[in-house]
Design goal:
The protein has 277 residues and is of the alpha+beta class. 32% of the residues lie in helices and 26% in strands. The protein starts with a helix and ends with a strand.
Length: 277
């Protein structure tokens, strides 16, 4: 794994505060989604101003995609699954990978429903992966009772015509994190879908939350630019403290900076922005 990717997966080791000054250093530290917008508001709970990045959340995004990998790996590990299941497809039955995906993706929940009727609880997190030739198959991290492989193979063949199903017991919890990272991080873009994952309603033990939730924002406003670009022109001399991957606490902000902020305007030269005259 490159140093750049390792930095994203080990955010807890990153420097937690940054003095707004040099833009290149700020851009590298904040790692904002290139298509993100920004919300600034005053948090009643934290008693300070905060900067929140509203990201695109797409798997193909060089920032969001990697952050989603780490996010889901942590959540899946916390869900305490006990089995890995791989469901394959039969390329001979389909004219192209997109047709194979459209013809088998709905078979996964049907497969799960059939298992529940006989074996009880079956919750899963599904990861879509494609082979080097582009054909899809599905990796499931599941929580269930004992499942005989021959029965799973029979069910999947009835639904898709593909009999090959691999089942493995999870022996160590840390296996889960690296399993999810392995299959989510190895490919950035699947040309015919951006839905890389899905899961059953009861699989996760914890609820997702948005950056603005729980902050108790008394007032807020949206800004049509990335958080690092906004900070460069409006928060010079302030210190940003990382609250999460998409939220920063603003320290040292003056009343003039919070009330009279300049809207950066595109000057047509790469990533540089300049304040409105």
């Amino acid at each position: 794994m490159s140093d750049y990717n390792a930095g994203l997966f080990k955010s807890q080791e990153q420097m937690r505060q940054h003095l707004v000054g040099n833009y290149c250093a700020l851009e590298d530290w904040m790692r904002c989604c290139p298509r993100s917008k920004t919300m600034q508001g005053y948090s009643e709970r934290l008693a300070c101003w905060v900067l929140i990045s509203i990201t695109c959340k797409n798997w193909g995004c060089p920032i969001c995609g990697r952050k989603k990998v780490a996010h889901y790996a942590r959540k899946v590990e916390a869900a305490e699954p006990n089995r890995f299941i791989t469901l394959t497809i039969n390329p001979a039955m389909w004219s192209n990978p997109r047709e194979a995906y459209d013809g088998t993706r709905r078979a996964v929940p049907k497969f799960a429903a059939a298992i529940r009727k006989v074996y009880g609880e079956f919750e899963f997190f599904r990861v879509l992966e494609v082979t080097k030739k582009g054909w899809p198959h599905y990796h499931l991290v599941t929580r269930s009772a004992y499942l005989p492989q021959p029965e799973l193979s029979r069910l999947w063949k009835e639904l898709t015509g593909a009999p090959i199903v691999d089942v493995r017991q999870i022996k160590k919890r840390q296996q889960v994190y690296f399993y999810v990272v392995k299959y989510l991080a190895k490919q950035e873009v699947i040309p015919w879908t951006d839905r890389r994952t899905s899961h059953t309603r009861k699989f996760f033990r914890e609820k997702d939350w948005e950056p603005a939730e729980g902050l108790g924002l008394l007032e807020s406003h949206f800004i049509g630019h990335r958080a690092d670009q906004f900070a460069k022109w409006n928060l010079q001399g302030c210190t940003l403290q990382k609250y999460s991957d998409t939220c920063w606490i603003i320290k040292g902000i003056t009343s003039q900076q919070s009330d009279q902020q300049e809207e950066p305007q595109w000057d047509g030269s790469g990533i540089e922005w300049k304040p409105a005259s």
